[in-house]
Amino acid sequence: MTADPVAIARDLLRCRSVTPDEGGALKFLEGTLKTAGFTVHRMTFSEPGADDVENLYARIGNAAPHLMFAGHTDVVPPGDEKAWQHPPFAGELADGELYGRGAVDMKGGIACALAAVLDHLGAHGTPKGSISFLITGDEEGIAVNGTPKLLQWATERGEEFDHCILGEPSNVAELGDTIKIGRRGSLNGHLIVTGRQGHVAYPQRAENPIRGLVTLVAALQAKPLDSGTALFPPSHLEFTSVDVGNKTVNLIPGEARARFNIRFNDKHTLDSLKKLIEKRAAKAAGSKIKFAFQWEPSNAWVFVTEPGPFTELVTDSIVKVTGRTPELSTSGGTSDARFITAHCPVVEFGLVGQTMHAIDERVPVADLRALTTIYRTIIDRYFTA
Q: Catalytic residues, which ones?
């Protein structure tokens, strides 16, 4: 008897695990994995100023090679639940699709991985190596008390990983079109220009910081940060807000601010990028514009898993099941893969992400079954090669 990814996904979707609440999702996984022979650990991590977060780590086998499946059971809020065709935490099926918050991001992916592993164990017994699940409840949050601390805990107890599959919804239009082998870094900052406050009727007695801010904003966006690399598109800086905080029409403000985000490729580190931006601003400012940067803390650095035998194994498995050759991509935002990459090569491959975070998030039942088959193919080949 094979495991049913649809039934597993429905059970997970019925858990209201909105970040940072566990909602019963980890409890369900714990019971299922223990029954299958896994050693399961549940732990809660804490940090001042952040919510406590529950996490799960489970492993079967004690030898290498060690294949890890990683993911998160936390989900974003559903928004107006009355706007959904089917309740977001009911796990309802309709017209061949499974509805629910987290259906694609990413309880559906976890369900497929779990079903594939259960099928492999049923057919082959304990693997010729090790399989683990590293599941967090903090991916949709600030990612402080989730995967980073869970990996630290695992490392301190001697866990070593050879490869990881992160079941994020990597595909763009149809199952099998994309594997994520890396992610761009992300850095947020504030540009602050200081002037001298004064009356608008006497501008000669003031120094308007808005003029300087406009100059620097234009300068920072006038020239590309780079031309891209072999595996990444060009880095880019986007201003997201401008704020003077001035509610008075006859007052020249003393300060003006602009907030921005940079998505950057592997030509840069966080430190080198900051120096580049500061140097460009200084050149545009000359001696007339007084400015400063405030950089927000970032744990979203750039990384890439170089194509090789593992990416080929995943690619070949996808081709075998879907007939599609996936693109090896580094597009999109950040994910917990940025933490995992320090411990082992990681690829992201899950469901199609078109409805993630949307009203009526849903996944075709056929995709759940196909993804399970892909994961099962990967596992079988991984431990029999």
A: 74, 139
